[in-house]
Each structure stands twice: as structure tokens, then as C-alpha cells.
Task: structure prediction
Amino acid sequence: MDKLKLGVLISGRGSNLQALIDACADPGYPAEIVLVISNRPDAGGLARTQATDIATRVIEHTNYEDRESFDRDVDAALRDAGAQLICLAGFMRLLSAWFVDQWPDRIVNIHPSLLPAFKGTDSHAQALAAGVKLTGCTVHFVRSEMDAGPIIMQAAVPVLYGDDEDSLAARVLTAEHQCYPRAVRLIAEGRITVEDSRATITDNLEAGPPLYNPPAD
Ligand code: GRF
Result:
């Protein structure tokens, strides 16, 4: 079976990109990365493709007068590379409605909270301020509103006494690295159906145990 061709967009350290690179290194994984694009030339994540043969491009948003002309060049690069699914992995630019319309249900993002709670860039601070005992991460299809769109997969992560933003972010990040490749696998295997604002996985019929925090006696 042909592998699903991924274009990965980053702005920073690229640890989720690394999780996707590692997953794709398994010959049985149903997706492959055909292009990585960074909008920042100094993104640490760019180094992660060095030991691979993955094509990498820097498209600096600061060279463009408006959002859509930047998006048009990103779109062209992804099409030239043959990308079929775009994975946002710490990509810190809002995509224009034009761009999102070009890739209907073909753009996914990972966000470090259990959406729809705690949208935005300070999700861990919001979780700590709210006093929730479980937070986590979400992989979702992208809509032009920030951190919105049909939810594909989530992982719940405990918030512990004494946590600060860094300790909580680190715990959630470990779950992110598990979630993103799994969510992409579900898409590549054709197991996700999107209807309006919901993504459904029709063969998802078996519940794991509930996660208690604090742990149940
Ligand atoms: C992750 O926490 C991701 O959920 C959020 O931005 C961070 C990116 O981290 N969207 P990395 O660049 O993948 O290490």
C-alpha cells in the first residue's frame, strides 16, 4: 500500500517532528515525511532532518508582506513535494482561511491540552490556574479558528502537587510524542471519518481503564 505523504511545518525545537521521523523509520508505518518546512531559519528542529534524506525548506514569514502570500508559497512547496497531509508540529503561525480551504481535513495539529479547554499558547498556565487534575494533549484537524477542529485523539495526563508550567509541559510532551504518530497512523489507515465538527473512528469500541488523579484506592 502507498504510504501517506506528510509535510511537517515547524517553528521551534521539533520534538514532535522527531516523534514522526522515528515512527516513519519503521518500515511498517503507513506514512512518510516528504518535506519539512520551518518559518524560522533558527528553528532547532531543522537539525533533526540532517541525518535523514528528508527535504527541508526554510520559508521565512518575515520576507512576506501579508499572511496569504506566505501561505501561498508554503502551499506551493507542499504540493511540489507531493504532500497529502500537513502536520503542524509547533508551527507558530496562524494559517489563513485561504490555506485551510486548500487542504480540507488534510491539516492536523497537536495542542498541549484536552481541547476545547485551554486554547492558546499558555495552555499549561491555564490548566494550573484552573486547578484541573487531568490535562493532556489533543491531535485535531485544523480549521481557520485557532486550536479548533474535529478531534482525532487525546491523551490525559495527571497534574501533580507542586507542578509548574515546565514540569507539566514536560509530562504532557511525553504523551504528545506517543499521540501524534498514532493519530497520523489512524488517518493513513483510513479509519477517520469527518462530519461537520466531529471526527469519528468507527472501530473505536474498546475502552481502556479510566485514569484517576489522585489515583483511586
Ligand atoms: C508542543 O507542545 C505542541 O503541542 C505545541 O507546541 C509544542 C511544540 O514542541 N503546539 P516541539 O517543537 O514539537 O518540540
